[in-house]
Amino acid sequence: MQRQEPGITQPRPPTVAEARARDKARKRAEEAERAATAAAEQKKRTRKRVLIGGVAIVGVAGLVGGGYLAYRALTKPDQVTAYCTVIDQNGQEVTAPDDDCEVASTAVGSGTTGAYTGSNGIFIYNGHQYRYYYGGNNTVGKPPTGGTTVQPKGAQIATKSGSTITRGGLGTSSKSSGGS
User: Fold this and answer.
1) Low-confidence ranges of the chain (pLDDT < 50)
2) Cα separation of 170 and 176, whole Å?
3) C-beta of residue 94 within 8 angstroms of C-beta of residue 156
4) Strand partners, 85
5) Which end of the chain is less packed: N or C, by CB atoms within 10 Å?
């Protein structure tokens, strides 16, 4: 047995078998590193393609949805609120509760005595003149503002209480849609 002294004794050269084993291990490690890098690159490319495909699908869906909403906005009838108005004792037109116009128009439609339709969509019931005022933002008991007495063409008209006005003017009729 020989003594080895640190810093003086030199290591013996590796045997041929040891050198081959070391080379094989190094080559396997390099090959494993290359395979891991290639797998990471492939995964990155696949993820990028999936994201691009997803963005394209979302973009097409957004375009189709936007086109549909634009079409609906262009073809949808305007929403207009109709307010019942009555001529008060001073001869001034004031906003009345929706029920008053419904009762008056029902009486006109049923032929009740003292109920008839005047000119310009006015219906008279119990000596009071009622008509609808379209648009604006009106309060019961105050004069109507911000709208018109002429029924808008092609508009979907409903009262504030939820009744739908099917046609205005002569022979006005309405139907309740379950409003408050």
Assistant:
1) 167-180
2) 19
3) no
4) 95, 131
5) N
Residues belonging to the chain? 180
Contact call for residues 173 and 105 (beta carbons, < 8 A): yes
pLDDT in tens, 9-30: 888 889 999 999 999 999 999 9
Helices (H), the chain: 16-75, 98-110
Q: What is the pTM of this model?
A: 0.48
SS3 93: strand
Residues paired with residue 123 on neighbouring β-strands, in sequence order: 117, 130
pLDDT at site 63: 94
Q: Which amino acid is at 166?
A: T
Bridge partners of 165, per DSSP, are 157, 174
Q: How far apart are CA 118 and CA 134, in angstroms?
A: 18
For residue 144, list its beta bridge partners.
none
* Bridging pattern class, strands 156-159 and 79-87: parallel
